[in-house]
Amino acid sequence: MKFPKNVRVKEVGPRDGLQNEPHWIETEDKIAWINMLSQTGLSYIEITSFVHPKWIPALSDALEVAKGIKRAEGVTYAALVPNQLGLEKGLEGGINEACIFMSASETHNQKNLNKSIDHTAHLLSQVTREAKQEKLTVRAYLSTVFGCPYEKDVPIEQVIRLSETLFEFGIDELSLGDTIGAANPVQVISVLEALLKRFPAKNIAMHFHDTRGTALANMIAALDMGITAFDTSSGGLGGCPYAPGSAGNAATEDAIYMFEQMGIKTGVEQQTLLPAIQWIENKIGKALPSRNLQVFKSSGLC
After folding, report:
1. Which of 86, 146, 184, 243 has the fewest C-beta atoms lying within 10 Å of its C-beta?
2. How many domains does the chain have?
3. Is residue 240 among the annotated active site residues?
4. Pyruvate carboxyltransferase domain: which residues (predicted)?
């Protein structure tokens, strides 16, 4: 197997992690946590989502969070923006990157966005164009690439078609989502073989949920295919409100441990990251599934 010397770990916990939490996390605690993450060596943090509060009430304080954090040099602060209004709020909040999103399966797109895929694509083309005019980079999430909670298998032809559409809009990076944590390494290789014939590996990221414990194995397969960008969530926080039973992303600290032990540099300091994750675990009030967090707590260093 061939592995890169460096990978980009993209922390999505403050958005993808907290959006599914049933208990309100205070705005000042979200800000404090993001500020802690900014000091760990992470170069990318997705801080919130500028969606309507009725859809994601846990992130209804998005603008206050975006305005309240302390920016660290060299860190990209991104946020999810579903439409032009969301982009306007994101710009007001000072984000560096706009993240747009849609599903590869029609039913999940309808459940998640209350729109057809075609209608969603039309709106996202406008958002991408306007974000680019404002000198932001644009990242697109394509969900349910490896399986849908409603339609089960998603044809690779559909994934290819929508990926082509998103890149035609002018996005800088496409994150392929295993929304329900159903992917396996062979499937990851198969999907990437199809997509990498059309798009450079440097413009593709992987977003694996760990519902069935295969996220790290899937990362290994993607690494071998030349992928160097991975979405992770501190502590293994997360899940999708419209994918019942799905677990959070691979834990940031578990992925970093694996990469570093393999000789792949991440630029992230575990000794700074783990206390920050312990801190948010206490605020959430429940144990998080991360393996390395359990080791850290049992060591007596926390």
Report:
1. 184
2. 1
3. yes
4. 7-274
